[in-house]
Design brief:
Keywords: Amino-acid biosynthesis, Diaminopimelate biosynthesis, Lyase, Lysine biosynthesis, Schiff base
CATH superfamily of the domain at 63-282: Aldolase class I
Number of helices: 14
Radius of gyration: 26 Å
Largest sheet: 8 strands, parallel, barrel
Shape: globular
GO molecular function: 4-hydroxy-tetrahydrodipicolinate synthase activity
Function: Catalyzes the condensation of (S)-aspartate-beta-semialdehyde [(S)-ASA] and pyruvate to 4-hydroxy-tetrahydrodipicolinate (HTPA).
Strand content: 5-15%
CATH topology of the domain at 63-282: TIM Barrel
Enzyme class: lyase
CATH class of the domain at 63-282: Alpha Beta
Distance between the termini: 56 Å
Helix content: 40-55%
CATH architecture of the domain at 63-282: Alpha-Beta Barrel
Pathway: Amino-acid biosynthesis; L-lysine biosynthesis via DAP pathway; (S)-tetrahydrodipicolinate from L-aspartate: step 3/4
Length: 367
Amino acid sequence: MSSSSLLTNTSLRSRDVSLRFGFNPTRRTTHHRVGRWKSPEAAVIPSNHFPMRSLEPKNRTSVVDIKSLRLITAIKTPYLPNGRFDLEAYDSLMHLQIVNGAEGVIVGGTTGEGHLMSWDEHIMLIGHTVNCFGTSIKVIGNTGSNSTREAKHATEQGFAVGMHAALHINPYYGKTSLKGLVSHFQSVLSMGPTIIYNVPSRTGQDIPPSVIDAISENSNMAGVKECVGNERIQEYTNKGIVIWSGNDDECHDSRWMYGATGVVSVTSNLVPGLMCELMFQGMNPLLNSKLMPLFKWLFQEPNPIGLNTALAQLGVIRPVFRLPYQPLPFAKRVEFVKIVESIGREYFVGEKDVQVLHDEEFLLVDG
């Protein structure tokens, strides 16, 4: 091709591109603007685009089914020495929950360290749990986020892999207005059965009753995991709103004195049979008092530090921690051994003798 032809073709291509994007290069010689530049339609992408959007039903679980759950375990995620999930240990923990009466599990919640997972890990674990155990227990995936867009996308993925319900927290760190909270929850509630999680000590912002009232009529609203206390729980249950206690040390009274449907429990990772008894068989202040030292021990440091330490001492998970979590100190581990002996080793998960473990037996991974 001659140089003159090449220049001509290049000029024509440049002119075609220019015309497609709404301006004419011949106008550059004049000082008068003719019309307005117009954005090309192809550059406008709807903000609600989700690659997995489908008109097929993703979830056949009714909200009524979720509302009836009494014991929901916030299941622990165990790790291999390389920091990846130990699915063999996880499956064993899940089996123990099922045979001891738990009706639901939260996957990838605070206890399951969802905040330390990539979303690929998160959705994989939800899908694995549904695939292996979804016919025996309700799988509630923690797909909450402080970004509404991210929360919707993760929730769609969670329902696509079969979870029965979603757990949603209010936007943390950046926080938002009360109107923003309502809009955020209305957006995620559109995806399927949902439990709202209120834990101001972690998010830095309470979800007040006015917000819950505003979204309570949504057909996908299953209820609230409430950590503020029993007076708040009573306020909701008087209105007919389903509530799960988020505090193990209050859950007995929440259930039998303040109208809560049940509990989302950390302690049931360790003693699922006793927590089942506490939630299913009527008031039992003697059992509640017996478990109180365990409740207090578990939460002396932010959850799940105590639980991770306890499960390692019981020999049901490897003593591997994802940073920034580290095990409780030696003296506290000695206390746990005494608590187990007081309650009875037979009530705890696993079959090995409870051990104190030495500091060098714990492995901390940062990747």
